[in-house]
Prior knowledge:
The structure holds 2 protein chains of 2 kinds.
Chain A: H1 5-22, H2 39-44, H3 48-53, H4 55-62, H5 65-68, H6 82-87, E1 93-95, E2 102-104, H7 115-120, H8 122-134, H9 142-174, E3 180-183, H10 187-195, H11 197-207, H12 209-224, E4 236-240, H13 249-269, E5 274-277, E6 297-300, H14 306-313, E7 318-321, H15 325-330, H16 333-347, E8 353-355, H17 369-381
Helix pairs in contact in A: 1-9, 4-9, 10-11, 11-12, 12-13, 16-17
Chain B: H1 5-13, H2 22-38
Amino acid sequence: MFVNETVQKKYEQRLKDYTDAVCMREPEHLLVGVNYHTAQFAWAKASVEKCVYNSDYYVESLIPFYGAYDIDLLTIPLINPLEPIWILGRDTFFVSSDGYTVQYKEDVPMRADEYPALIEDPMGFITGTLLARKFPHLMEGHDASYHLLRAVAEAFQRHRSANAKYGAAAKDRYGILDYNGGKVYIPFDVIMDRIRGVKNTLLDIRRQPENVIQACQALMPYYLQPMNNLSQPVPHGFLTLHAPMFLSRQQFEKFYWPGMKEMIMYAYNKGSLTWVQFQGHCDHILDYFLELPKGSVIVNLEKEDPIEVKKKYGHHIAIEAGVPMGWYRSRTKGECVDLAKRICEECAPGGGFVFGIDMAGLSAGDLCEENMNAVFQVVHDYRK
Amino acid sequence: MEVKFSDLLDRLVHDEEFLGSQEERETFCLGFLHMLIEI
């Protein structure tokens, strides 16, 4: 429940403006979206461990962030389920030496010769072989293993509840919009990120390309299913591109694009959209988006020049971009504000534009409050 | 006796102390498996 009518009206206006923007219409106001992620822990000087174990502490420590940074869209600090990881004795996600930034360490549980087993029965292979390999503590005896699994499951539920509570508080107290309707995870990225690793996957596409293609196809139904609750433009699907920056154009077309197109079209045919976060250089694949229906994606740019992308593709895709994180950290306020004005003037007309950023925040150095709020003011004043 | 993960998961999904409703069972299972693949 909103704390007052003013906050409720703010939320409703943000929802309208964001929906207009991502549906390729000119909104009444330009909106600002920046993912601060674990930088928010640094801002709050909040203990990550305490946030994991106490959702009230998590909410009360982190929500005031929206009173300090004038952003419109939700940013989530506790993205990763740390408690299940700790219960299982894993270190794939860990808190860095600064006490706030959560990093990921690659894990490679599958061997190169196991693609046929993955293809034949993906969930049977994953549950019967990979999970047993990853979590030996779950294989020590049925009752003991069951109690451990149940503890992990309860921790998983707590993690989901904590983020639901956080999102609700951001909405009710500050009118912040949560636009994320669910993860869109391309099977090729699942293989590269979680099963074979970067180096092995890049070898696999050369040594056993048909197996990689078939493995992606075999995994697809299990990654389409979570998208079934998408039904409207907002909230929409949330896709981060991991592999494309490692792939040539031909490799992207052969191994990645078929699955990516299938999932984006799945969301579109359900009446929704897909937010696509570029990671690394992805300009070599931008023209593929012209194969999709107009307005089916919102592309969050990283290395690409938003003004050039708007000129070439802005008639077909919505763009989220802004002053780069590096500028906020190293340039003057005046330089950041001038760039923000130029980006707004070139990218906002015609709609299909949300003011964003190239990279998520991770640590205290990414907070840059003075420069960022000066820029956000410029964006919010645009068109007033 | 060998522990099978599928047996553990089956027991978890039917544990009414943990998942009280059919809706909870349906929304829990795949999300939980995806999480275990990702960590």
